[in-house]
Amino acid sequence: MANMKVEEKRKQRTRISGALMLIEALKAEKVEVIFGYPGGAVLPIYDKLYDSGLFHVLTRHEQGAIHAAEGYARISGKPGVVIATSGPGATNIVTGLTDAMMDSLPLVVFTGQVASSVIGSDAFQEADILGITMPITKHSYQVRDIQELPKIIKEAFHIATTGRPGPVLIDIPKDMTTLEGEFDYEQDVQLPGYQPTIHPNHLQIRKLVEAVSQAKKPVILAGAGVLHANASKELQQYAEQQNIPVIHTLLGLGGFPADHPLFLGMAGMHGTYTANMALYECDLLINIGARFDDRVTGNLKYFAPNATVAHIDIDPAEIGKNVPTKIPIVSDAKEALKELVHQEGKPADTAAWLAQLNEWKMKFPLAYQNDAQTVKPQKLIEMIYELTNGEAIVTTDVGQHQMWAAQYYKFNKPHRWVTSGGLGTMGFGLPAAIGAQLADKNATVVSIVGDAGFQMTLQELSVIQELNLPIKVVIVNNQSLGMVRQWQQLFYEKRYSHSLIPNQPDFVKLAEAYNIKAFRAKTEEEAVNVLKQAFSLKEPVLLDFHVKADENVYPMVAPGKGLHEMVGVKPCEESLQ
Amino acid sequence: MTVNNRPGVLNRITGLFTKRHYNIESITVGHTEIEGISRMTFVVNVEDERTAEQITKQLNKQIDVLKVNDITDQAIVARELALIKVSAAPAVRQEIYTLIEPFRASIVDVSRESLVVQVTGEPEKVEALIDLLKPYGIKEVARTGTTAFTRGSQKTAASYKTPFII
């Protein structure tokens, strides 16, 4: 009987085209926004999109589309959806896919492909995007049978958003968008080769509880895994219960409140003195959802040399990859923390350790010399922090401005920080801000970018203007590739090879060409004024800050050095007296 | 290791080895008793246990990979097939026949100047035969690489040695 019913249902199901299947699947997934760019191979898809009622954002370059989708995913926690055409459309998303793969962002990306009959013949706008993107996607598909399309899309959304999130690509030959088939989107996802471990092993949890009770100098290193798992509350609860100080990776910022007494700051190459020294001196290191990236650890030989390492990660391959780990816990961060909070065990006696850390915090805070005659980039970030009450969504590219933003914008809330961490992609910040704003329409979004990175994706100003997104674009303009220049100054005998750009365009005029209000500031006073003006406007504004050009990011762990070998640590003047 | 027999799956696996900087000694791929599932056997030279563990974990992350088993230190059946084309004037043929007999190798092709010897066995055995045939003049060698699985109902062992087989 049951079989007959299924059979009847099948008969009732009308046959629809592949393009329409895609639209229906996106509706079933409750996709709020699609970022994309049409072209020959996806014309049938765009035709069905035309009157689908789905919200599509036409970015001005496919790279803009995928970075916007990343920004959307980072803020909303939902998968970012991208459509690009075959060939150049598809190859233009390669950087974004790699970026999302490195930073574990859930994306479902559809690329057009030439018709099945001509694949392999070097047809017009043909690129082997499946082959190109295999190492930079969590998984990928090419549709070879129209009847498989619904199943593939369903699997893609499942894979992108579960376990360790990541980008999934679906390559659709043009004929597959016009061929018709039955659309069944109610089938269960069955992937025997993909069963992420969500719940922690009880024995390992007990081992960690035991290690904590023995520890004198424990520390938590929390990464973006905490944010993906929405585990900020649990992290704070656990740290407070056990009296363990917390350090963030670059991507983890906001997971633990920056103004919390147990917070030590960001770790790594441009981390705080206290965070890096705590990692060097600790006897128990609890890594929660971070992957021991080289920019965090410095030279592994000197990394946490005296510590027992515990590592909570949903991706088992990250555990023990770079740092030998005594207590491996494969789990979702939230599930592990929930279990840890409810365990019975003696909390660590950390009074002496916290006193030591507090002394370092007082003695060696992040510091810079202010100069009101110019705009100091650090001061600029502090001003933005104050004017936005620390509640803005901040997006950045990579480089000096990114590090200053990470250091001086004190994130007290989760899901406010959108930056390109692992891949370090210039041109990420501006399109990412579009996605972030669409994910949280009421938030104040500040896109802090460098003068060089801005020019890699500035065409997306057009989208910001078109949708009237009240994003504030802050250009930290030092007329150079600041971080490259800094390294050349420090490690290449000040031979500034191709890192200085004294003839940058007039960014104010440029913004005006896009019908976007823009201001320039060259002193601290001007900076305050234009910032106040910008934040009072409910429309996009571009701000060009001519900052002190030769400012460096400190403290710094030079490449190859251990975290304890930081340079540029400026002791607080008061403590010296 | 067992995988879904899907287009590109071999590409995914070999690409992963390239990406992670591991060198593959040999690969064999073929169908299993279950339709749609293939078995791949890799021989990989690794420096330490950590690398072996890392390779296993990375392979496991692939959606199309169903099961990875490091069988380096287990009781296994491992076999390789080799075809060896040897220069063989009629005068030495009888000698070669006698030579290969203990290896249970066979002659699968005979021409005026050469013979093709087929041998199956563990890689060491294949090596030994090739070595013995060298003095006659080896014209060509084709080897399949090792394919293997565990004997009986063996369970996974814990330690790693080089080279290791998955």
From TrEMBL, chain A:
<keyword id="KW-0285">Flavoprotein</keyword>
<dbReference type="InterPro" id="IPR039368">
    <property type="entry name" value="AHAS_TPP"/>
</dbReference>
<dbReference type="InterPro" id="IPR029035">
    <property type="entry name" value="DHS-like_NAD/FAD-binding_dom"/>
</dbReference>
<feature type="domain" description="Thiamine pyrophosphate enzyme N-terminal TPP-binding">
    <location>
        <begin position="18"/>
        <end position="130"/>
    </location>
</feature>
<keyword id="KW-0274">FAD</keyword>
<comment type="similarity">
    <text>Belongs to the TPP enzyme family.</text>
</comment>
<dbReference type="GO" id="GO:0005948">
    <property type="term" value="C:acetolactate synthase complex"/>
</dbReference>
<dbReference type="GO" id="GO:0050660">
    <property type="term" value="F:flavin adenine dinucleotide binding"/>
</dbReference>
<dbReference type="GO" id="GO:0030976">
    <property type="term" value="F:thiamine pyrophosphate binding"/>
</dbReference>
<keyword id="KW-0786">Thiamine pyrophosphate</keyword>
<dbReference type="Pfam" id="PF02775">
    <property type="entry name" value="TPP_enzyme_C"/>
</dbReference>
<dbReference type="Pfam" id="PF00205">
    <property type="entry name" value="TPP_enzyme_M"/>
</dbReference>
<dbReference type="InterPro" id="IPR029061">
    <property type="entry name" value="THDP-binding"/>
</dbReference>
<dbReference type="InterPro" id="IPR012846">
    <property type="entry name" value="Acetolactate_synth_lsu"/>
</dbReference>
<dbReference type="Pfam" id="PF02776">
    <property type="entry name" value="TPP_enzyme_N"/>
</dbReference>
<keyword id="KW-0808">Transferase</keyword>
<dbReference type="InterPro" id="IPR012001">
    <property type="entry name" value="Thiamin_PyroP_enz_TPP-bd_dom"/>
</dbReference>
<keyword id="KW-0479">Metal-binding</keyword>
<dbReference type="InterPro" id="IPR045229">
    <property type="entry name" value="TPP_enz"/>
</dbReference>
<comment type="pathway">
    <text>Amino-acid biosynthesis; L-valine biosynthesis; L-valine from pyruvate: step 1/4.</text>
</comment>
<dbReference type="GO" id="GO:0009097">
    <property type="term" value="P:isoleucine biosynthetic process"/>
</dbReference>
<dbReference type="GO" id="GO:0000287">
    <property type="term" value="F:magnesium ion binding"/>
</dbReference>
<protein>
    <recommendedName>
        <fullName>Acetolactate synthase</fullName>
        <ecNumber>2.2.1.6</ecNumber>
    </recommendedName>
</protein>
<keyword id="KW-0028">Amino-acid biosynthesis</keyword>
<dbReference type="InterPro" id="IPR012000">
    <property type="entry name" value="Thiamin_PyroP_enz_cen_dom"/>
</dbReference>
<keyword id="KW-0460">Magnesium</keyword>
<dbReference type="GO" id="GO:0003984">
    <property type="term" value="F:acetolactate synthase activity"/>
</dbReference>
<comment type="pathway">
    <text>Amino-acid biosynthesis; L-isoleucine biosynthesis; L-isoleucine from 2-oxobutanoate: step 1/4.</text>
</comment>
<dbReference type="GO" id="GO:0009099">
    <property type="term" value="P:L-valine biosynthetic process"/>
</dbReference>
<feature type="domain" description="Thiamine pyrophosphate enzyme TPP-binding">
    <location>
        <begin position="397"/>
        <end position="545"/>
    </location>
</feature>
<keyword id="KW-0100">Branched-chain amino acid biosynthesis</keyword>
<dbReference type="InterPro" id="IPR011766">
    <property type="entry name" value="TPP_enzyme_TPP-bd"/>
</dbReference>
<feature type="domain" description="Thiamine pyrophosphate enzyme central">
    <location>
        <begin position="205"/>
        <end position="340"/>
    </location>
</feature>
